[in-house]
């Protein structure tokens, strides 16, 4: 929300950089930092667990987590423009991430949750991520489940794109106000 402080906004508005390019730069910066952290974690995972997974399973897991990383970046930048104050932003991000994790079976398997919770979770990106995680851990080979796996990946990607579009609309309206 620092980009909407009065003095920062006045400086960026007087420049020749369009609002669209400013927003893309913000998203690219957040995405770059997230991607660097993700890369380090993927390399550490490969070093530590290289005997536990096949290359195919590991690559599918990387794709699944990379797509969910896009969702996380989209949620982070959207929350960043909607919430004022660092403490409020931390609280909002914790509420969103922990709430979604609970509703989508990260902490408690979906089999133990009521049907209404599982149905609601279908409207959240983490449920599609968890379906792929479950598929990767419960299958000897992903080969027989590629359609399901990539369909779930498609749903995660749709969520990421939709949240980014909401971010762009919110930013455009905030700039106009």
Question: Which features does this protein show?
Answer:
177 residues, 7 helices, mainly alpha, globular
Describe this structure in words.
With 177 residues, the chain is mainly alpha-helical. 77% of the residues lie in helices and 0% in strands. The protein is built from seven helices and no strands. Helix 3 runs parallel beside helix 7 (146-176). The model has no long low-confidence stretch (mean pLDDT 86).
Shape: globular
Structural class: mainly alpha
Main sheet specs: none
How many extended strands? Answer: 0
Query: Which regions contain 5 or more consecutive residues with pLDDT less than 50?
Result: none
The helical percent reads over 70%
Radius of gyration: 19 Å
- Please give the alpha-carbon distance between the first and last residues: 15 Å
Q: How would you state the average pLDDT, rounded?
A: 86
Which series of helices and strands comes N to C?
HHHHHHH
As a percent range, the share of strand residues is under 5%
- How many DSSP helices? 7
């Amino acid at each position: 929300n620092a980009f909407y402080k009065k003095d920062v906004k006045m400086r960026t508005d007087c420049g020749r950089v369009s609002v669209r390019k400013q927003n893309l730069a913000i998203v690219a910066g957040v995405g770059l930092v997230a991607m660097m952290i993700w890369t380090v974690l993927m390399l550490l995972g490969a070093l530590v667990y290289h005997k536990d997974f096949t290359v195919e399973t590991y690559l599918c897991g990387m794709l699944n987590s990379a797509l969910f990383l896009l969702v996380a970046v989209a949620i982070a930048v959207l929350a960043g423009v909607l919430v004022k104050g660092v403490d409020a932003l931390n609280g909002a991000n914790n509420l969103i991430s922990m709430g979604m994790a609970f509703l989508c079976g990260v902490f408690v398997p979906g089999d133990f949750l009521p049907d209404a919770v599982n149905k609601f979770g279908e409207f959240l990106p983490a449920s599609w991520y968890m379906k792929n995680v479950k598929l990767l851990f419960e299958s000897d080979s992903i080969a027989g489940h590629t359609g399901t796996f990539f369909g779930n990946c498609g749903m995660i990607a749709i969520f990421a794109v939709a949240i980014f579009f909401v971010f762009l609309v919110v930013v455009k309206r905030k700039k106009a106000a």
